[in-house]
Amino acid sequence: MKLGFRPEDELFRQECADWLNDQMAGEFRDIKGITKLTGSPERRKEWEQQLAAHRWSCIGWPTQWGGRDATLAQQVIFAEEYARAGVPGRVNHIGIELAGPTILTFGTDEQKQRFLPGIAAGKTVFCQGFSEPNAGSDLASVRTKARLEDGEWVVNGQKIWTSLAHISDWIFVITRTEEGSRGPKGLTFLMMPIDQPGIEIRGIRQINGDAEFNETFFTDARCPADSLIGAVGDGWRIAMGLLAFERGVSTLGQQMGFRNELDEIIAAARANGAANDPLIRQRLAKAEIGLRLMRYGALRMLSQTDHSKIDGAALTYKIQWASWRRNLGELAMDVLGQGGEISEHAEYEWDTLPNLFLFSRADTIYGGTNQIQRNLIAERGLGLPREPRGNA
């Protein structure tokens, strides 16, 4: 495993850094440092289009579809420099990193023509309709149903935790299309326009004051018959392929965000004297070691993984970073002390480190709870027998 980058890749890194820093110091300086996903949504949609105009939006995609055919190393470098420059998270992360690669891999030529140009241009924002009230991390238990009627899919059911659904244009939905089916059988992957009478979106307020999550209700909502990806009943395979993309190059950019957070904690500890506490110093050192180990592990995962599949490394990575960052949030509050529990803002808004603590409580829940991840590691990674499940 090679842990460094070639000289030509470092030149590419400088190109990325120069462009991003220029943007954050210039036309888009007003969005630099925004941590809430719901902050300045219209300006961030404009930012998506600015990225697209300079072909930075989806650099790993083929040039035919608006990308740069960037190598894996270049994609990692861009993700790192993006986070290092203090640029806010992508409001179309779901479209760029999940929907787009899924369509590229499993979609028809007509579907690629229909969806990819809008995603690449930053004009078509996607959200994900997987989790349900009784099927959070257990995707095989979804109950939302779809039936074919007069050349259209008619969908009824409910999804939850649909990030940024309120500013999205499309949603991809796992539905049950075979009456009486259970588990992964009988599922179908549909692409649905959100702006229609049959879809209702209700925001969910989070403990950090943000409201990026939503409940999404489908009441005879419709989409064309050819809006399914893959075949009828092939939804489980498509969803597993999509989740493999989720463990892709964005992990290194995510870690650069973690780097920024840890650096801010260290700076706070030095400023208020907490760094003189030997236990705090020990925890800071442990966090530093953990972050470096995650980086090496992610580089190894990316260099060895067939990204159309989820392997053991990808299964362990989610539980590793989620647990590490939850602990980081607790460390941040211990460094800040009682002052970290008081917001200086008139409304319920928090600075970076208190917000880190509040949001990181969800890290071990969303995207697969730690408990579910352990089952996946055991069953799919180690080949152990499935956990007994009741009939309820």
From TrEMBL:
It comes from the Bacteria. Residues 7-123 form the Acyl-CoA dehydrogenase/oxidase N-terminal domain. Gene3D superfamilies: Acyl-CoA dehydrogenase/oxidase, N-terminal domain (1.10.540.10), Butyryl-CoA Dehydrogenase, subunit A, domain 2 (2.40.110.10), Butyryl-CoA Dehydrogenase, subunit A, domain 3 (1.20.140.10). Keywords: FAD, Flavoprotein, Oxidoreductase. Residues 233-381 form the Acyl-CoA dehydrogenase/oxidase C-terminal domain. Its cofactor is FAD. Transmembrane segments: none annotated. InterPro entries: Acyl-CoA_Oxase/DH_mid-dom, Acyl-CoA_Oxase/DH_mid-dom_sf, AcylCo_DH-like_C, AcylCo_DH/oxidase_C, AcylCoA_DH/ox_N, AcylCoA_DH/ox_N_sf, AcylCoA_DH/oxidase_NM_dom_sf, Mycobact_Acyl-CoA_DH. One of its GO terms (molecular function) is oxidoreductase activity, acting on the CH-CH group of donors. One of its GO terms (cellular component) is plasma membrane. Residues 127-218 form the Acyl-CoA oxidase/dehydrogenase middle domain. Belongs to the acyl-CoA dehydrogenase family. PANTHER family: ACYL-COA DEHYDROGENASE, ACYL-COA DEHYDROGENASE FADE29. This is Acyl-CoA dehydrogenase. The lineage of its organism: Bacteria, Pseudomonadati, Pseudomonadota, Alphaproteobacteria, Sphingomonadales.
